[in-house]
């Protein structure tokens, strides 16, 4: 999946991991600060467990990110 996202988003792809620490990837709780520090392009793809999806959705609304710029996928 990461390969496909990198092809789709190019340099705008930022993979943020909440638990694992991997060199070259952002790490931490997906709050407004982390999103602002790592957001590159206008589009946002969000995939994760429901509590994370809710937190990111709230942060994106506060940031006034347009609904059409947000793609979500639950697992």
UniProtKB/TrEMBL annotation:
UniProt xrefs under InterPro entries: FNR_nucleotide-bd, OxRdtase_FAD/NAD-bd
Lineage top rank: taxon: Bacteria
Record-level Gene Ontology MF annotations: oxidoreductase activity
Pfam families: NAD_binding_1
Gene3D superfamilies: Nucleotide-binding domain of ferredoxin-NADP reductase (FNR) module
SUPFAM superfamilies named among the record's database cross-references: Ferredoxin reductase-like, C-terminal NADP-linked domain
Oxidoreductase FAD/NAD(P)-binding domain sequence ranges: 13-56
Name the UniProt record assigns to this protein: Oxidoreductase FAD/NAD(P)-binding domain-containing protein
Native source organism of the sequence: Geofilum rubicundum JCM 15548
Organism classification: Bacteria, Pseudomonadati, Bacteroidota, Bacteroidia, Marinilabiliales
């Amino acid at each position: 999946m990461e390969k496909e996202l990198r092809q789709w988003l190019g340099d705008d792809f930022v993979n943020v991991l909440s638990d694992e620490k991997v060199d070259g990837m952002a790490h931490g709780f997906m709050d407004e600060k982390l999103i602002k520090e790592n957001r590159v392009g206008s589009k946002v793809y969000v995939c994760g467990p429901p509590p994370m999806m809710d937190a990111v959705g709230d942060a994106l609304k506060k940031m006034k990110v347009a609904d059409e710029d947000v793609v979500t996928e639950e697992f």
